[in-house]
Specification:
The protein has a seven-stranded parallel sheet, sandwiched between helices. A three-stranded mixed sheet has the order 12-9-14. α1 links the parallel β1 and β2. Helix content is about 40%, strand content about 20%. It has about 325 residues and is of the alpha/beta class.
Length: about 325
């Protein structure tokens, strides 16, 4: 996939959630392509690019202050919000606030102050719920089975409605299982910690036959940058995945091998709440737009394992 072209007048973008795992990669990708980048949200991961920053809850005032420093905004990439199913089950109201309320503030800021800016919203495959269809197309009905997925769907609906009502330019990217260096949650991180602690046997939830679509975070950031490019016309909704189905057992086995850990791996047969049997992307729409996932799962797991070993050992 070709890099988004650098605009002569150095377009500006605000990245919300820029202190998070995906948001930090998005901010650095945009900066590499010549964007002037503003960082917003909770401070967290270091972002290795020259950028304006306003850390804190996403509000109209925070966005306005950041825009005042950057000037006219070409895009707001909204990465802030709930990040996984588990925390949304434990604190659904907080997850709603992080995802839906922050999206309302972004949309209202654009409506009031930057009506020509494109909003690129990072949604999730969790909006599809427990569909048995594989692969999942963007036209598949949304039936979320967790607060996390429901709140992402609500934020999508808000942007779609406000886009129609107020003429906002919006693109929704439904990301599947994004992984890579810096990920400190979900199966890759949890499995790595337990494996390097020499837990044996390693017993995981589910059957191991669950199928997922793993996308390297570098590829996810490339897709987001492509959608943000003011010279392009992205579809209103895009799946962000590799298009390749991988079982949880295969993922776990591959990661253990990359970590250099030889231990028994078992599954308890119990499914977690909000955990569907299959989530694999139909990527034809993204491919037609010019996106190709470049990082193979084996290479991505090798890089992740090297990073984890540096962090933990």
């Amino acid at each position: 996939m070709a890099a988004p072209p650098v605009q002569v007048d150095s377009p500006a973008a605000i990245v919300t959630g820029a202190g998070g795992f995906i948001g930090s990669y998005v901010a650095m990708a945009l900066a590499r392509y010549g964007w002037r980048v503003g960082l917003a949200g909770n401070a967290g991961r270091r972002v290795d690019c020259a950028a304006a920053a306003r850390w804190g809850e996403i509000t109209l005032d925070l966005l306005a202050n950041l825009a005042a420093e950057l000037g006219d905004i070409s895009a707001i990439v909204h990465c802030a919000g709930g990040s996984s199913v588990g925390p949304s089950l434990q604190a659904p109201a907080a997850d709603y606030h992080r995802t839906v309320t922050s999206t309302m503030h972004v949309a209202d800021f654009v409506r009031r102050n930057q009506p020509r800016a494109r909003i690129v919203f990072l949604s999730s495959a969790a909006v599809y719920g427990a569909s048995e269809q594989e692969p999942l197309s963007e036209d598949q009905p949304r039936r979320p089975i967790s607060p996390y997925g429901a709140h992402k769907a609500m934020a999508e609906d808000l942007l779609t409605h406000w886009g129609e009502q107020f003429g906002l330019d919006t693109t929704i990217i439904r990301l599947f299982s994004v992984y890579g260096e810096g990920l400190r949650k979900q199966l890759p991180w949890e499995l790595s910690q337990r494996a390097l602690a020499e837990e044996a046997p390693l017993i995981l939830f589910g059957s191991g036959a669950e199928r997922r679509d793993f996308l390297a975070v570098e590829d996810a950031a490339q897709l987001v940058a492509l959608a943000a490019d003011p010279g392009g016309r992205p579809p209103p909704v895009l799946n962000g995945g590799s298009g390749q189905a991988t079982t949880v057992r295969a993922l776990a086995t591959g990661l253990l091998s990359a970590l250099g850990v030889d231990t028994a791996l078992r599954f308890n047969g119990e499914s977690k709440s909000g955990d569907p049997a299959t989530l694999v992307a139909d990527t034809r729409r993204a491919q037609a737009f010019g996106f190709t996932a470049n990082v193979s799962l084996s290479d991505g797991l090798s890089r992740y394992a090297d990073w984890v070993k540096r962090e933990i050992t």
